[in-house]
Design goal:
The chain is an alpha/beta fold. It is 31% helix and 34% strand.
Length: 229
Amino acid sequence: MSRTSMAAAAARLPRSPIYGIGTYDVDGSRADFEIGWDELERDTDWALSVLVQAGIQKGDLVLFSTPNHEGPWICPIVRSLRRIGASYATSETYGWDSRRFAMYLRRLPVKAIIGIGGETVRALAASEETLSSLMTGVGVVWARPDAVSALRAQQIEAATYVPLGPALGLGLPGEHGARVNGAEWAVSDIGGCIHVSNRQPRATDFDAADTGIYGAVEARGTDHLVVPR
């Protein structure tokens, strides 16, 4: 049986009522949430639009620096890359995995990085190679808020990647902040902390859910722009 036939056969099998379950922490308290199939498709459509605007193309190689528990936020991006026809490699965001992260950059033509955080930046700063030399040829970098300033200090322009409670924040190159899908989420600043509410039906409803992220909210077309502090 060919791969195409296997995929078609698998698509006819019954599937679970939900895609999966995510979890995030706010001030030490865990919030679990279910993820439906319809919302996964909408989240993927939106992530695809951001990646295309950022210049990700068929044949590009994207390097993730993300822990496994961020699957609920990364999955729409992965599905978007498959639609584009881009490949991806994975590494963890922790400092102890910085050597594997750097190995990909040395050996493969990485065009974009998603999720690099402060631990990785600090670990690589202690190595013989500079980040700027490692990232030669990388066109787009999405970094966590704790890494953006450090990268820019080394003349590495970085857009922002940040999970905002159940919502995905993904900026565009040149923007100082992370975009959030305005059709899917209402985003508000309550006492300096970002809160989100779902605009469309989701498997789990959110009403001004605290994300634990401090920052400001700006309008950016039909989306929100969250500038973390």
